[in-house]
C-alpha cells in the first residue's frame, strides 16, 4: 500500500492496515500520548495512543525521514555494527 492510499483510508481501515502490515520500530512518550512508530512499505505511521483509555486517537503518516528525529536515540543499532 502506498502512502497516498493509506492517507485516503478511514480510521478503522488505518488501524487494520497498521496492525496487519506495519512493523513496530519505536515508541516514545508525549505529555498526553504514547506514540508508536510503525513502518509500512516505504513510509512511516505514528499512532497516537491515549494512555487512559488505550484508544488510538490519531494516525500521522509520512515518508520524510527527518520526522524520525524524535526516535533516533531510542533505536539501538549497536548489534548491527559488530
Short summary of the structure?
With 82 residues, the chain is α+β, with helices and mostly antiparallel strands. It has one domain (3-74): Viral Envelope Glycoprotein, domain 2 (2-Layer Sandwich), CATH 3.30.67.
Topology:
Layout: H1 3-8, H2 11-21, E1 23-29, E2 34-40, E3 43-49, E4 56-62, H3 78-81
Antiparallel strand pairs: 1-2, 2-3, 3-4
Low-confidence stretches: none
Total number of distinct structural domains:
1
Principal-axes shape call: globular
| CATH architecture classification | 2-Layer Sandwich
User: What is the helix fraction of residues, given as a range?
Assistant: 25-40%
Main sheet: strand order: 1-2-3-4
The CA-CA distance between the termini, in Å, is: 34 Å
Number of strands: 4
Strand residues, percent: 25-35%
Task: Describe the fold and architecture.
The protein is an alpha+beta fold. The termini are far apart. A hairpin with a 4-residue loop joins strand 1 (23-29) and strand 2. The longest helix has 11 residues, at 11-21. It has a four-stranded antiparallel beta sheet. It contains three helices and four strands, in the order H-H-E-E-E-E-H. The chain has a single domain (3-74), classed as Viral Envelope Glycoprotein, domain 2, CATH 3.30.67.
Q: What labels would you give this structure?
A:
Viral Envelope Glycoprotein, domain 2; alpha+beta
Amino acid at each position: 500500500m502506498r502512502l497516498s492510499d493509506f492517507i485516503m483510508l478511514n480510521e478503522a481501515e488505518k488501524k487494520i492496515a497498521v496492525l496487519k502490515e506495519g512493523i513496530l520500530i519505536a515508541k516514545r512518550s508525549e505529555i498526553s500520548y504514547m506514540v508508536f512508530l510503525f513502518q509500512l512499505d516505504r513510509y512511516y505511521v505514528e499512532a497516537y495512543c491515549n494512555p487512559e483509555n488505550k484508544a488510538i486517537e490519531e494516525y500521522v503518516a509520512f515518508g520524510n525521514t527527518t520526522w524520525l528525529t524524535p526516535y533516533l536515540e531510542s533505536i539501538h543499532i549497536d548489534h548491527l555494527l559488530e
